[in-house]
Amino acid sequence: MNTLEDLRAGKLAGATRLQLVEELTTFPDEIFTLADTLEVLDLSNNNLADLPDEFASLVKLKRVFLSFNQFKHIPAVLAKCPSLIMIAFKGNQITEFAEHSLPTSTQWLILTDNHIEQLPESFGELTQLRKLALAGNRLTTLPCSMQHCKSLELVRLSANNLTHIDDWLFELPKLTWLAFAGNDFNKAQSLQQVSLTEAQLEAFSLVEQIGEGASGIIHLAKWQNNNVALKLFKGAITSDGYPLDEVSCCLQAGEHNNLINVLAYINNPLQLGLVMELISKDYQNLGLPPSLETCTRDTFAKNTDFSANEITLIAQQMIHTLAHLHANNISHGDVYAHNIMVNADHNVLFGDFGAATNLTTLTGYQRKQMQLIEVRAIGCLIDDLLNVCSEVSARVDHLVIIAQQSMNTDITKRLTLTALTEKL
């Protein structure tokens, strides 16, 4: 964190990154003194409502974070920024999204939790866009021009007012992680007719926080004289959608050896929750989340090294798990190493249904395409693990081919889940 005082005093000369949280209502002109070096600007958690025309003079700027401010429109000056690849406006009150207001160089766009009712037809110009977060807006349709965004890999459309999804979205050649729960055509209405136990929040004794994700906080808790993991959801909407949809998808997924076991749920009007089996400390996260540089692809701790046999074991279990989910008309939407837990024997536990979607309302063709999208996620997972594999062998070469076939941008030539099982 930096200060405006230090910036004005010239102490930040030559800085490539700047973060200011000072209840700003106007853009500080002093930032322009860094025009020749500044690459990352974070002005989130202020009270800004606009950007000056001079903003485009920040010619080296690659990433700008303007989340949790007072913006009601996307400033058109952004389109004039020559190096900008990442833009974040999460948690503003944006209603106006004018034509041609973003640079065509944009690769990562975060507009979660705003009031956007319509995307501009010029959205199709964003042909380099890889990551798009639009959950929690008021979209009723998507512009047909968006089918030209053929670099899209991750798309979040949950908690909008979409009445349907067109086929072209499922046909984007690189789409790998897709979530669209909580729209008008597929929103979970309740948790009725669930065979699992409904528990009361008062029955739990919270011991300590043991984890936190985008949608909720996980506690170690006492329940019926047992230690359990209790996930309590944060609020009415998360970065991936509505908590009710996440709980509903998690319950619909059913039981599987590689899924974290759900014991009960909490359906309090003021607090939704999931009661899960406490995972042994023998299990650790397989990977780390993507970085700013990798955008959509996972990262790994230094000195991580997987063998071909280990990668095969993990991939086999994940394929079986996804086949089970899709048999129950659920897509996971977030198949990543950082969402997978493994023990020393590389047994897999998989959970976190924040980006899951109920596929029941889709056509048969769309459900088939959704499977192929998640096959691509498996391909990326294998590819990521191979990037931290030092082994040189025929088996590694075989895995490379499987990853390539699973990630094929010609979807008609992509492996199915069944074919993947046979290949491995």
Overall number of domains: 3
Low-confidence stretches: none
What helical percentage do the residues reach? Answer: 10-25%
What would you say the CATH architecture of the largest domain is? Alpha-Beta Horseshoe
Share of residues in strands:
15-25%
Shape: globular
Instruction: Tell me the quaternary state.
Output: single chain
Distance between the termini: 48 Å
**For this structure, what is the CATH homologous superfamily of the largest domain?**
Ribonuclease Inhibitor
Number of strands: 19
Question: Would you state the CATH class of the largest domain?
Answer: Alpha Beta
Enzyme class: transferase
Protein name: Leucine-rich repeat-containing protein kinase family protein
GO molecular function: kinase activity
EC number: 2.7.-.-
What can you tell me about this protein's structure?
The strands form four sheets. This protein has an eight-stranded parallel beta sheet. The chain has seven helices and 19 strands. Strand 11 and strand 12 form a beta hairpin. It has three domains: 1-152, Leucine-rich repeat, LRR (right-handed beta-alpha superhelix) (Alpha-Beta Horseshoe); 197-277, 2-Layer Sandwich (Phosphorylase Kinase, domain 1); 284-423, Transferase(Phosphotransferase), domain 1. It has 424 residues and is an alpha/beta fold. The longest helix is centred in the C-terminal third of the chain and has 23 residues, at 364-386. The chain has helices at residues 4-8, 167-170, 243-252, 308-327, 364-386, 394-406, 417-423; strands at 17-19, 40-42, 63-65, 86-88, 108-110, 131-133, 154-156, 177-179, 197-199, 205-212, 216-223, 226-233, 262-268, 271-277, 284-285, 330-331, 340-342, 348-350, 357-358. Helix 4 packs antiparallel against helix 5 (364-386), helix 4 (308-327) packs antiparallel against helix 7 (417-423) and helix 5 runs antiparallel to helix 6. Helices cover 19% and strands 18% of the residues.
